[in-house]
Amino acid sequence: MKIAMFTDTYLPTKDGVVTSILTSKEQLEKKGHEVIIFAPEPANGEKEEGVQYYRSKEFRKYPGYNLPVYPDVKTDILKQLDVDVIHCHALAIMALRSMLAARKTGKAIVVTFHTMVTDAAKYYLPFPEGLTQRLSWIYLSKLLERADAVIAPTEAIKKELYSKAPKMRHVEVVPTGIDCHRFSPLVDGRTIRAKYGLDNKKVILHLGRLAREKNLELVMESFADCLQKEQDLVLLIAGNGPAKEYYMEYSRKLGISDHTIFAGFVPEEHLPAYYAACDLFITASKFETQGLTTLEAMATGKAVAGINYRATAELVHDGQNGYLFEDDVGSCSAAIFKAINCTQDIRDEARKTGESYSSEKCATMLLNTYEYAIAAKLERHAGRR
Predict the structure, then answer these.
(1) Cα 228 to Cα 173: distance, rounded to the nearest angstrom
(2) In angstroms, how far apart are the furthest CA atoms of the chain?
(3) How far apart are CA 363 and CA 184, in angstroms?
(4) The dihedral of CA 302, 284, 238, 16: what is its sign?
């Protein structure tokens, strides 16, 4: 099978969408399929051979993201490639381009809903939040209802999408898989602990893009509360993003900067060691549709303290493979201490959860969705004759 994947974001930018695309591409190619990426041209000019790029302009309010606003027709290339299905990983301009390509080529289109963009829009668009929400969902519902199949990463997101776009033709829950060989309890984190002087410290890891919608304020405020009771704690914040300076200043205001490390961007090959170096992983983001970093931490055998919301609440089972907390400091602080002092049974259950999301298994589910979409498209086309 030959698959064309359209995306709003791609290398050298690294985020959950890019990770999902790279993971799926690798596994599909291992199974003998071909994947062609269609992406906005990167601002720094670093292009990957074989990728079809659209000429783009950088989105200044969110560095690392580029908008393909210039006219550029790739439909002829798609026809020459003779792809079997179009997989849209985008929700903005590249989503529209993928829909146009599907219409002109007559190919089936599958849309993965990776990002709850309606939650993030208030930070980057100069419109009232209520208006932004309404207009965004009008657009998104039309996009989703035109797809031959929609992929939701979790059951929680599937239910939410049906509440907003009830006329969708078909929805499958297909998570992005993780490499359970790379992310494993056998990984050695001592080099990372030595690098940051973390010996004899209890390390709380937050890993991900530093953006306001990630709700990192709650983590930092709860960490400040925990420090009043235990001083040998360190908050290791790994990742980069548009809100890095904001969060660095926030740590100073809270008086936790001496116990907080901003590690910056972590290369892909070093990610497993960062998980291995921590005592617990934490996420307070309400923005996640799946939570890849949560799964990677669990696969590494780490207890997770996660907010009781959307995808995180579906992955973390309180008191079984991790601990959930509500959107307040007291609840979050309590979950941190529970995770720090958890038993080996909790860590073992976390590992089992990670293993249930293996990339090989998820790639098979993805192929089944492609086959469904292609067959459904042909059936509808035959019904119109």
Answers:
(1) 42
(2) 73
(3) 20
(4) positive
Angle at 77 between CA 76 and CA 78, to 5 degrees: 90
Distance from C-alpha of 37 to C-alpha of 259, rounded to nearest angstrom: 42
The amino acid at 50: G
Give the pLDDT confidence of 217-244 residue by residue, as tens digits: 999 999 999 999 999 999 999 999 999 9
Would you say residue 378 has pLDDT above 60? yes
> How far is residue 164 from each of residues 117, 121, 179, 189, measured CA to CA in Å?
14, 17, 33, 43
Phi, psi of 192 (to 5 degrees): -70, -40
- Other C-beta atoms within 10 Å of 181: how many? 12
Q: Dihedral angle at the C-alpha atoms of 115, 121, 123, 128, nearest 10 degrees?
A: -160
161 φ/ψ angles, rounded to the nearest 5 degrees: -65, -40
Of 202, 226, 206, which is closest to residue 215 (Cα–Cα)?
Answer: 206
Entry pTM: 0.86
Q: For residue 249, give every residue at least 6 positions away whose Cβ sits within 8 Å of its Cβ, in sequence order, or none.
A: none
Distance CA 155, CA 220 (A): 29
Task: Identify which of 181, 183, 177 has the alpha carbon closest to the alpha carbon of residue 205.
Answer: 183
Size of the chain, expressed as the number of residues it contains: 385
Phi, psi of 8 (to 5 degrees): -80, -20
Secondary structure element (H or E) that encloses residue 77, with its range: helix 75-81
SS (H, E, C) 158-227: HHHHHHHCCCCCCEEECCCCECCCCCCCCCCCHHHHHHCCCCCCEEEEEECCCCHHHCHHHHHHHHHHHH
Render pLDDT for 318-346 as a digit per residue (tens, 0 to 9).
999 999 999 999 999 999 999 999 999 99
**Alpha carbon 181 to chain centroid, angstroms:** 20
Sign of the C-alpha dihedral, residues 258, 259, 265, 268? Answer: positive
Contact 93, 8 (CB under 8 A): yes
Q: Which two tokens stand for residue 66?
A: 């580029």
Q: Name, in order, each residue with C-beta under 8 angstroms of 364's C-beta and a sequence gap of 6 or more.
A: none
Q: Give the three-class secondary structure for 13.
A: coil
